[in-house]
Amino acid sequence: MAYIEARGLRKTYGATVALDGIDLEVEEGRILGVIGPNGAGKTTALNAIVGLTSYEGQLRVMGRDPWTDRARLMRDATFIADVAVLPRWIRVSQALDYLAGVHPGFDRAKADALLAKTSIRPTSKVRELSKGMVAQLHLALVMAIDARLLVLDEPTLGLDLLFRKQFYDSLLSDYFEQSRTVVVATHQVDEVQHVLTDVVFLDRGRIVFRRSMEEVEVRFHEVAVHPDRIAAARALHPVHERQSVGRSVLLFEGQDRERLAALGDVRTPSVADLFVAILSSRAGQPQGATR
Known about the structure:
Elements: E1 2-13, E2 16-27, E3 31-35, H1 42-49, E4 56-61, H2 70-73, E5 77-80, H3 92-102, H4 108-115, H5 131-143, E6 149-153, H6 161-178, E7 181-185, H7 189-192, E8 198-203, E9 206-212, H8 213-219, E10 220-225, H9 230-234, E11 240-244, E12 247-253, H10 257-261, E13 264-267, H11 271-281
Parallel strand pairs: 3-7, 3-8, 5-6, 6-7
Antiparallel strand pairs: 1-2, 1-4, 8-9, 10-12, 10-13, 11-12
């Protein structure tokens, strides 16, 4: 079942095209990473999915139109925005009480357990918390809601490395325990790639790359080429070439791994390296070109 299905999804702000005819399917039980530079359309796409912005084209989320049926949709979905907005006057305990009273899917015990891993006191007011602590509180509140679809826009922005790791470990645990479907947009690619099942690259409002992580591991290889084999490696038409510690590192798609091993040291590229390679290869292409 496609939890999210978009056809020709388009959004403009005046003369600015934020989304330029996106086609996308996210199946139930997958974790999709949405990666792109600033201004690529990531936040606009996520806002459309949770009904926070209008759009052109077709979009169904769990069988519903998110713009006209947002109230019903958000009973089964949660959204973490890139900026945590909470009333500055409210105490932590009051925020927990409020959500417990208004949201039937809120698990107070789970929220308490998440907050117990932080230094946040229940009696503290939001205005007394640091930016990172506000982000921690926001994550605890939203992650404690039992939802089938979780949409995250830069969820760990402003958090230290330790808490970011704890968050993604908790996200992965929830995913396996509750069969959640997750869509996450982030710049911290290396920290999130181990939880992803699928990845999409956005550039200038268009999807320029989409693969499952299984496909990435099978089809893409990076080779740190021996200096005397560089001509032979380039003859195989690499997707991208970069320099690293005195060696040329070439990215290949669809080449036999054993054949590449004769050219140098072979490894599976990280999502971050793949992202840089794909967007660098598009730098000279017209805006409409996709891969």
